Amino acid sequence: MVTFIIRRLIASTLMLVVVSMVTFAIFFLVPRIAGATPETLATRYVGRTATEATVKGIAEKLGFNDPVVVQYGRFLKGVVAGEDYTNGPVVEHCAPPCFGYSFLTRRPVWPELLERLPVTLSLAAGASVIWLIAGVAVGVLSALRRGSVFDRSAMGVALAGVSLPIFWTGLMSLVIFSYGLGWTAPGGSYTPFTENPAQWAYYLLLPWITLSLLFAAGYARLTRAGMLETMNEDYIRTARAKGVRERVVVVKHGLRGALTPILTIFGLDVGLLLGGAVLTETAFSLPGLGKYAIEAITNNDLPKVMGVTIFAAFFVVMANLIVDVLYAVVDPRVRLG
Q: What average pLDDT does range 273-293 have in this prediction?
């Protein structure tokens, strides 16, 4: 088991390096191939209103005239050992891990990512618990009552949940439940869990439900399909023939076999959300990583965009690592692969 985890850790580290290379190439190599000059790249660091002299100075200062390989090596060095940035008469030190320095906000990107992370983490954690419990429960009941009114109604709601865009359901939820009925808090508010847990949950309740509706619908359909397939297996009929209680047959034998694909998708979904629930955070004006990315793109702030991209990739790779380890715990045969 230890050897398996070490192999997966090494593979995950290599994957992060590959992701950083691809990300760096998208932002720096591809524009050069398309004909962009070092000054063009520099405008992404200083904004649209900078003078020509300022742009040329930034291009030289950031080393955009160097080969892309040298620039990538400098970027990796900054992530590991930090980097110094000259901002006028002041030299700013970007402590490791340094994902860049924003000349618009005059702050390193990494501390800003950490400031936004609790909001995104709170949103992803609460919504994932709701959609996992609700989606799996509805899927199991639909499979056990196949063809019933509940089954058809639940799958109809699931189809609507998958089809409706999150920005529409988010805005409609705000109009009805926040501004119309006054049951939930309007968007734009967030209280840290450590300060007031009740208020933290109150502000995030509607975003949790709205986001979980999208994912719970897919989980319900997937669980239903898996349960229908598993409940027709020979070992299920054998367990029933031996007199095993139906609840044990459903939960211990049927559901356990149907949860394998759920585990995979759950890990990927949570990993993606930790990188920023862009549409949900924008619809509810939550100051998380997703809204941070939108603001960075709008302001043409390249270091922030790169930081969010690599940060999100880190969560996805870590989610895959955790799923692999859980697979090895559930099924020992995985460790032999």
A: 84
Residue listed under structure tokens 């020509």: 52
State the residue range of the domain holding 65.
2-109
Phi/psi of residue 237, nearest 5 degrees: -65, -35
Same domain, 294 and 268: yes
CA within 13 Å, CB half, 66: 12
- Picking from 90, 109, 128, the residue at the C-terminal end of a domain is 109
17-38: average pLDDT: 87
Using DSSP's 3-state secondary structure scheme, residue 108 falls into strand
Distance, in Å, from the CA atom of 78 to the CA atom of 71, rounded to the nearest integer, reads 11
> Cβ distance 270 to 319 under 8 Å?
yes
| Stretch (H or E) spanning 255 | none
Instruction: Extract the tokens encoding 141.
Output: 């009941």
Residue 180 and residue 198: Cα distance in Å, rounded?
Answer: 22
Classify 322 as helix, strand or coil.
helix
Q: pTM for the full model?
A: 0.81
Residues 275, 178 within the same domain: yes
Cβ atoms of 141 and 335 closer than 8 Å: no
State the greatest distance between any 2 C-alpha atoms of the chain, in Å, as a whole number: 83
Same domain, yes or no: 170 and 141: yes
Q: Does 93 share its domain with 126?
A: no
User: Measured between alpha carbons, how far is 107 from 92 in angstroms, rounded to an integer?
Assistant: 8
